[in-house]
Amino acid sequence: MQQLPPQPAYILHSRPFRDSSLILELLTPDYGRIACIAKGARRDKQRRQRALQPFAPLLVTLLGRHDLKTLGPLENAGQPLWLKGRAVYGGLYANELLVRLLPEGESQVAVFAAYQQLLAQLATLGGEQSGELELPLRRFELGLLQALGSCPELNFSPLANAPIGADAIYRLTPEEGFAPVMVPPGSSLRATDFPGAQLLGLAALMESGDDELAVGMAEILSAAKRLARQLLAPLLGHRPLKSRELFRQVYGAP
């Protein structure tokens, strides 16, 4: 039986398989999202199932030649990150996005690093305020969309063949990315319209990774949320995200 080299991994999702096993969706750097069978995991509750928890860094060995691998030996690769309150749902949301959007079996080194950073940030939160989630989740969403090639450049307009101007208004278009538009004075912006200053602020936030840039930037984070929702919608289709629905049921918040 073919054995892949050991890989760092996180469990994104698990579901029962036959009488005593689990099918796991893993995130790894070299193979991206990959599915495997954890044989006997539901029976061996004292050891193996306890190790197969979300948000816990693992080192896994995968066996087999087919698309659905078998989980071989695994080790803990660090302490599990205990997320609290709303941060738990932020982690579940990220997991669901990765399961829904990542192609199977393709290297995702940047996405794996972004996911590690997200979990580390979520683990520092008290989980009592929804606003705490805005910066880490928006950065993760846009980073994931960039990795998938589904986020246009935030500081350049291909249609204008020029950098984004801070004083201009740009409309998100499926074909051209951000296109400059004229908005009559006193007219409301469309949902797809973004002030150039907000786009430049987003670009700086993504490029620097400096959380201090987001201090006092509620408008920037609001624009990031609106942009991410618009870009994610065609990729996710009409099936709602379970994690988002669960968050609303528990906290009554969008």
Automatic annotation (TrEMBL):
It comes from the Bacteria. Keywords: DNA damage, DNA recombination, DNA repair. Residues 7-71 form the DNA replication/recombination mediator RecO N-terminal domain. It holds the Pfam family RecO_N. Gene3D superfamilies: Nucleic acid-binding proteins (2.40.50.140), Recombination protein O, C-terminal domain (1.20.1440.120). Belongs to the RecO family. NCBIfam families: reco (TIGR00613). Involved in DNA repair and RecF pathway recombination. This is DNA repair protein RecO. It comes from Microbulbifer bruguierae. The lineage of its organism: Bacteria, Pseudomonadati, Pseudomonadota, Gammaproteobacteria, Cellvibrionales.
